[in-house]
Design a protein that fits this description.
The chain is α/β, with parallel strands linked by helices and 249 residues long. It is 33% helix and 19% strand.
Length: 249
Amino acid sequence: DNAPRIPAAAITNEDADRLQRLQNRGVKLIVRLSMEARMLPDAESANVVAEIVGREHPEEVIVVGGHLDSWDVGTGATDDGGGSIAAWEAIRLMKKLGLRPRRTVRAVLFTNEENGLRGGAGYRDQHKAELPDHLLMIEIDGGVFRPRGFGFSGSAAARALVKDISSLLAGIDAAAIGSAGGGADIGPSVESGKIASMSLDVDSSLYFTIHHTMADTIERIEPADLAKGVAAIAGMSYVVADMPQRLPR
């Protein structure tokens, strides 16, 4: 609160690249920037939560989630409406198929990722006493393009198990396990509870073409890619939730 209020702006990669091309050709650039954004008072908001309660260990939890808010220049379909829908759909599929794993699988659609992370911090604070029994948190916030696998952060023992599970996703070419995984929304809980974390790894070659731009609309989401991402999330979260043993810390 005691820091200077310095205006800041962002332009799209597409516009930045155009300016660079013009400069490279020796064109004199004059940019007029009109900024109408302003800070408004905080307003009440909430996370949206749905879960399938575990049949044997309901207190042990696997979380999958994305965030509800977006930049208002587009509709936030990629950042992060698609991720939120993918998390929700993974839970819906388990329910439709009558699958009830040993542990609870919880979808959390976080609020306020773009402007303060209050949804992530609020979840951590509300569930602080339960975090030791959170075994894995998965975030989908890199777009729902063609899935390649997951990034993973956790112990070597947990990584070995996750790699075995990921082999089930070879049929949709989503079996890769990267060196690190996590996300802004799950970050407060992961850090506080020392919880293993994952993020959906996708072909992100188009992500920054539409990220935080007017082009971030539902027309840019390929249904087949989204469906494969949902399958990967549902498969990974269900198997971790249904294993006889806990995913090791």
